[in-house]
Amino acid sequence: MSSTLKNKSWRSGVSLVCVIAAGILLNILGTKLNALLGLPLFIDNIGTILSAMVGGYIPCITVGFFSNIINGFSNSYSIYYCIISVLIAVAAVSFADKMRRFKVPYILIGILIFALMGGVVGGMLTWLINGMSFGEGYAVDMAAGINRAVPMGYFLSNLLSTFLIDFVDKAIVTVIALIIYRLLPMKLLAFVHTQSWYYITVLERNESHKSHNRKRLSLRWKVTLVVAISTTLVASAAIGISILQYHNSTIAEYEENGRYAARVICGNLDKDRITEYLNKGEEAQGYKDTEELISAVIKLSPEIKYAYIYRIEEDGTHVVFDADTAEVKADDPGDVIQYDDSISKYKDRFLKGEPIPTDITNDEYGWLLTVYEPVADSTGKVQCYIGVDMEMNRLRSEEIAFLAKIISLFLGFLILIRTYAVWMAEQHIVKPINSIVHVSRHSGYDTPEAREKWSRMFDMLDIRTGDEIETLYEEYKKTAHDTMRYIEEIQHKSEQLARLQNGLILVLADMVESRDQCTGDHVFKTAAYTGIILCQMKKDGFYSDMLSEEFIDEVVNSAPLHDVGKITVSDTILNKPGKLTDEEFRIMQRHTVEGGKIIDKAIELVDEDTGYLTEAKNLALYHHEKWNGKGYPEGRKGEEIPLSARVMAVADVFDALVSRRSYKEPFTVDKAFDIIREDAGSHFDPLVAQAFLNAQEEVRRIAALNMEP
How far apart are CA 115 and CA 109, in angstroms? Predict the structure, then answer.
């Protein structure tokens, strides 16, 4: 068994790798063909859709994810679209069954959903990755044409454009995938579909809810939730840390660029002439050159918005150099302006000529990162500060683009990891446990065949996970086999006790009846008739709600005790050859009550009112009651009389009619049947009598076996 499982597992693994490799190859070939033909499409999902139809979630999601990773070696942006390919893979599996059967409406719906994933979701991702821009290309040109024809704005027109292009793309790749699927050999498809990684399922997944009213979360969903939550938390932390690191590194880069610009200015500035520049302005020697240098530095980088040189004094900020920009006209040399927020914050340090920390502000001038470079003269005294303001707006779009890239990459990876984690958990935890539960729920103890079948089912599981679940299985299997053995031993002993019990009852009943020289085999015959009546009633559907197998066995086995009360009647009355006097008859009638008392004592001794003894008491006490209420000892009528006693009434009277008694000759069987028929509804329960008459063939056979020669 284990070698068969290993071989099956090996074949399953090889076929899984082959399906994934073939799917990735088809996706890459489609991409290369699209590039070769110069089409404004992608043709990169043929393998994804085909692997969905052939293999299900595991290979399909793997193909979608790694196709983009591999394409990323030639086009790095492809990596960030992993999530789109994975979403298309999930959608493809959802429609795989309908696609395999070529259900055209579902194929069209599938293509539409693929296009929504690739065109709309992918278009929004493109917009985010490009810093809230759709970039350039055929789709953007097409969007411009759409917007001119039907004005809807830049964003919506581009989404519509990418959707239309992607719809054509997904229609082409779906048709190609369907053609390839149709051309594949049926034996190959049947083999792949039988692999353990095909659809993620749980054995009898709904059975766990059948016997429980309260809703429960299945183990499969718990594993899925644990994997999803843990991976999401890890991914969220990783994304958060990455964004923080990216933000900090970008800020550091801006700061470094600002300081470099300030140092360039500082390196070309005559530091001993700062006061002259402040007082004379453009008339001072070299002022114009420095001013042009500052303007040139501003143009060096799009991030540099302002550059200036200030002297900070108690009365305000004194302008040494300032440069015009498109938005703001420069201040003149010697102007004194109020402290702005960043200077007010570090006023004391400015006045002392100390280094100033990098400052970030967001005011009417924009979101700016400002660096201040102190300028010291030849004596080492700080004369002024060079300020460079770096515009931070680009950081927002860059961070959004970075966030979009990393989230898309992480989400694709998360879905891939979640799929494999759930599959592994299902194969090695959920399915083995549910298999044990399934077999346990179908256990059978009633017959040797049922026990053998259950034991064989346990052995066939052959769970080999190599962990605690395998240990649990082995221990449970051992317990099951031990339980089977114990049950067989108990049943064997129970059967022995039942035979002993029935034998003792027959012996006791025979001892009682042997005192009556007229009754002979009465206890055996009445028991046989009782069994015939009960079985016929069940066959005819009479009192079917009461006639269980257990009830029938209890009545038939306790039937010999119906006359146990005769043990209290004297032999003189019991064997009197003639008709009994009224007093003697009253004494004879007491055998029903005495029989009930004897059974009551038995119930007290066993300290349990079992069904068996209950029916024995009913038979002994009420078998002479009549349907019309004219019987004895209590004069019960109709269904007030226990069913077992109503059955015994027919069997007892019939046997008395066809048997010889000291006071009468035996009636013929036909005459006895006529009497039973006539007294139905008065003496006898009409349904019980009808069942007896319906079973005449069986009754005649029993009567013939015991008929006098």
Answer: 10
Per-residue pLDDT, 502: 54
CATH architecture label of 2-199: Orthogonal Bundle (1.10)
- Sequence-distant (≥ 6) Cβ neighbours of residue 442 within 8 angstroms: 454, 457
Question: What six digits make up the tokens of 286?
Answer: 């070299």
Q: Kindly report the CATH class assigned to 515-705.
A: mainly alpha
Measured distance CA(452)–CA(315) in Å, rounded: 104
Chain position carrying tokens 């069997």: 651
Given CA atoms 412, 416, 417, 419 in this order, what sign does their dihedral have? positive
**Dihedral-angle region of residue 153 (phi above 0 means left; psi in -120 to 50 means alpha; beta otherwise):** left
Which spans in 541-668 are helix H?
Answer: 549-558, 571-574, 582-606, 611-622, 643-658
CA distance 602 to 593: 15
Q: What is the helix (H) or strand (E) element at residue 375, kind and residue range?
A: strand 366-376
What dotted CATH number matches 253-399?
Answer: 3.30.450.20
Residues 376 and 355 sit within 8 Å (Cβ to Cβ): no
pTM: 0.56
From first CA to last CA, the distance across the chain in angstroms is: 66
Which residues, listed in sequence order, are joined to residue 83 by a DSSP beta bridge?
A: none
Averaged pLDDT, groups of 10, the chain, 709 residues long: 54 84 94 90 93 89 92 85 92 91 94 95 90 86 93 94 95 96 87 60 40 58 80 82 86 92 94 93 92 90 91 94 84 91 90 93 86 94 95 82 84 84 80 80 71 77 80 81 77 62 55 49 84 94 91 88 84 79 88 88 70 85 94 94 94 89 81 94 95 93 69
515-705 and 253-399 share a CATH fold: no
Distant-in-sequence, close-in-space partners of 503: CB < 8 Å, separation ≥ 6: none
Distance CA(599)–CA(602), nearest Å, equals 5
Sheet with 316-322: strands ordered across: 336-337, 316-322, 304-313, 382-391, 366-376, 359-363
